[in-house]
Each structure stands twice: as structure tokens, then as C-alpha cells.
């Protein structure tokens, strides 16, 4: 089995520590101690903790941009939407340190702010595309103003669910449950779905509880 490069080990360990303890509570000394390497070895690869956070964010950003690239003319099924939400909440859970203390993380790392705002916009656009596809296929009825509000609510839920969920187990930040986020997000769409699709969506969403 190929040996994992020290740089990758630093990133993997940092991500695990950030998720478990919160990024503000993790120092480069703690990371090097966890890896059993010298601080000098860590600084050979990264100048400071901010550089580690930035590289982790780049990986997150690439994953999100790929996931949120929903074709505008796609005919999207409920199953496809469910799979989309599943992958979205899994990605958020994997990089949950960004979301659990979002405002403070972005305040400490201001160069990430425009990139995160772009991700929020892409999320909103993706939800708008999905709902528009549902409407075009005849199994969602929603007005223009309601659609804009719903997309904001969906974006808000995917953004802050991780933080809300963490509040129930602050003593164990690794006890995440992305499925409950999928459930809550799908429930927001239920009032606008036709009867048959609503029943199907309920069955799908309840499987995450």
C-alpha cells in the first residue's frame, strides 16, 4: 500500500481535528503532536494554520462546484433530487467545521468570504433549477415569489443545519446525522408537491430518520 504523503496526512488530520474540536480550538502544535511530527516539519509544508484551512476549503469548493452544477434544462426526478440532497449533506458533514462556526471562520479567513458567497449562490440556483424542473413536469405548483422564498429556505437549511445539529451534541461533534438534514430539506418542499409526488417524497424523506 502506498505511503500517504506528509502533506496529505497534515490535511487529513487537520480536518479531523477541526471537525471534532472546532477550528478555533486547534493549533498547529496540536496538529503536529497528533501526527507525531515536529512543528518544523509541518511548517515545511504549510506556513500557518490559515494555509491549511485554505487548502481544505479548496477541496470543499471543488466538490461543491461539481455537485451544484445542475443543468438548467434537466428533467429532474424526485429520486435524483434525493440523491443530490444526500451528496450535498454528506459533503457538508465532511467539512462541517466550516459550517459549525461559519461567521467566525469566515471572519478569521476573509479571503474565503467571496468563495463561500459564490457557493451559496450556486446552492440557491441549483434549488431553483430543481423546483423549476418539477413545475415544468407538473408535479409542483408554486408561484414566482413563493419559489424565491422556498429556494432561500432550502439554501438556509443546507447552510445552517450542521450548526443546528451540533447544538444537540456539543460534547461529541463527530456525532453527525446528515440524513436528518435531508429529511428537513425535503419537508420544506412537501406543501408544493402534487398528491402522488408528495406521498413519494414522504416515503423517501422518512427513510432518513
How would you describe the overall organization of this protein?
The mean pLDDT is 91. Helix 4 (49-67) runs antiparallel to helix 5 (78-94), helix 9 runs antiparallel to helix 10 (178-189) and helix 10 (178-189) runs antiparallel to helix 11. The chain has helices spanning 6-21, 28-35, 39-45, 49-67, 78-94, 97-100, 102-108, 113-137, 144-166, 178-189, 195-206. It starts with 5 loop residues before the first helix and ends with a helix. With 209 residues, it is an all-alpha fold. It contains eleven helices and no strands.
Brief descriptors of the model:
single chain; 209 residues; mainly alpha; 72% helix; 0% strand
Quick summary:
By secondary structure, the chain is mostly helical. It contains 11 helices and no strands.
- Using only C-alpha atoms, the radius of gyration works out to 19 Å
State mean pLDDT (0 to 100 scale): 91
How do the SSEs run, as a string of H and E? HHHHHHHHHHH
Q: Which blocks of ≥5 consecutive residues have pLDDT under 50?
A: none
Look at the helices and sheets and give the structural class. mainly alpha
- Gap between N and C termini, in Å? 38 Å
| Major β-sheet annotation | none
Please give the oligomerization state of what you see: single chain
Tally the beta strands.
Answer: 0
Q: Judging from the principal axes of the Cα atoms, what is the shape? A: elongated
Contiguous helical run count: 11
